[in-house]
Specification:
Elements lengths: L1 E4 L3 H13 L4 H20 L4 E5 L3 H15 L4 E5 L6 H10 L4 E2 L8 E5 L11 H13 L2 E5 L19 E7 L15 E7 L9 E4 L18 E5 L4 H12 L5 E6 L11 E4 L3 H7 L5 E6 L7 H12 L3 E4 L1 H6 L10 E2 L3 H8 L6 H12 L2 E4 L4 E4 L5 E4 L11 H16 L2 H19 L7 H11 L3
Parallel strand pairs: 2-3, 2-5, 3-4, 5-6, 6-7, 7-8, 9-18, 10-11, 10-13, 11-12, 13-14, 14-15, 15-16
Antiparallel strand pairs: 1-9, 16-17, 17-18
The chain binds ligand NAX and potassium ion (K).
EC number: 4.2.1.136, 5.1.99.6
Organism: Sphingobium xenophagum
Subunit structure: Homotetramer.
Length: 460
Amino acid sequence: MTGAPILTAAQMRAAEQAVFASGVPDYALMERAGAAAAAIIWRAGGLRDMLVLCGPGNNGGDGYVIARLLRERGVAVRVAALGESRTPSSQRARAEWGGPVEDLATAAPATQVVDALFGTGLSRGLDAAVAARLGELTQAASHSHAIDLPSGVETDSGALLSAVPRFRLCVALGALKPAHLLYPAAGCFDRLIYGPIGIAAPDQVHRLGPPRLMAPGVEAHKYTRGLVAVVGGAMAGAARLAAQSASSSGAGMVRLFAMDEAAAGPDAIIHQQVQTAADVAIALDDERIAVVLVGPGLGRDAAARDRLAATVTAGHRLVLDADALTLLAADAIPQGSILTPHEGEFRRLFGDLPGSKIDRARVAAAQCGAVVIYKGADSVIAAPDGRVAVAAGASTWLSTAGTGDVLAGLVGGRLAVTGDPFRAASEAVWLHGDAARRAGAAFVADDLPDALPAAIAARL
Ligand SMILES: NC(=O)C1=CN([C@@H]2O[C@H](COP(=O)(O)OP(=O)(O)OC[C@H]3O[C@@H](n4cnc5c(N)ncnc54)[C@H](O)[C@@H]3O)[C@@H](O)[C@H]2O)[C@@H](O)CC1
Ligand SMILES: [K+]
């Protein structure tokens, strides 16, 4: 489940310092980085003629190493620089290149362009003329490669500090950075390839990787596999969708406590009509219940508030979604819950927290003692103990009504199966993304539960 580690610019510098402290000379690390990137670019672009754009820092240094190594492979390489090289390693890399260095302002385009202007050291947006040149030369190339990061993106937040063109490929050196996964920066390249350079990286924050799931054991029965209760409300469809998703998530049983009469749907879901808060309390007075999901279709009126209060009071493990996130205050969230807020719900619950989406999710999780799935094209899953998983590249077709209800049901189901909120949240986000990929294009939320068994089977 743990994917590649994600390091901030400061953590990256610390990891590099640790390598230097172990006896590796500065320039040797730059050679490693340049060699890793050159090998990746070679596979992508082969012998096509190339222009390498080199900035003043170590990102530019990587560029000179790449230029030299690909020239050795027979590529017709030209180099254009933005000023002098300012670090000892990049000065040495430029000297080892030894070939002509053109001016970035006047260099002619090539079939391949390598952006080695700025990486993790970017401190402000590119000057307008430089950003425009980068844009022109990138658009003119059929093969465009960004070294470490596209120049102009802020490493830790994924914000664009100046106009950034779209690259075919981004080579992440040593570790992923937040900007590789967080939007808008994550939208500045088609493909991301990780180039290891032999640094030791902490993996408290990592890219969401494929989970390892388990088939039920021989002694399993419906209650040991987890009973999920879904408390519905005024909008019947949302809770039904969540219940349907929970029932295809691997859980043993799903009970839907809804205000409407039983509607057509999978007969495996036990449907019980529940009207008042007192009815909810009675329905949830069942110690076989592993997890209660509340929020999808709950409503926001006084009756909904009462149903929610009765649900919280019942004392089961909670998954809180949608209207529950609008009705509850952050300090009323029971510890050990899982929350699934989108941007608006997150801001309402936690206010305008500073930092990146990763930082905000982490602070929120620590504040309320719950696992937070901060949804979006770049969903961030944060645990109260500081662990974070960032899910990259979800299908954009997920931006349709009801997919949040499906995710909530899936989170409830996985929590009932595993009993571990961070693990359950991570598994659910992965399976949701994979179900969407399997559903293809222009699907509706109702299609996703049908795709879940195959997504689960692929991870056993
Ligand atoms: N330390 C090393 O030897 C290694 C460094 N690596 C590379 O080095 C990069 C980081 O290098 P640096 O820390 O030198 O940083 P950068 O090369 O990203 O840029 C820093 C330089 O650019 C200047 N600068 C920042 N923003 C600017 C702007 N908008 N306009 C004009 N100048 C600006 C800074 O004052 C500084 O001189 C990584 O992204 C990676 O590509 C990695 O290859 C690993 C090895
Ligand atoms: K770059």
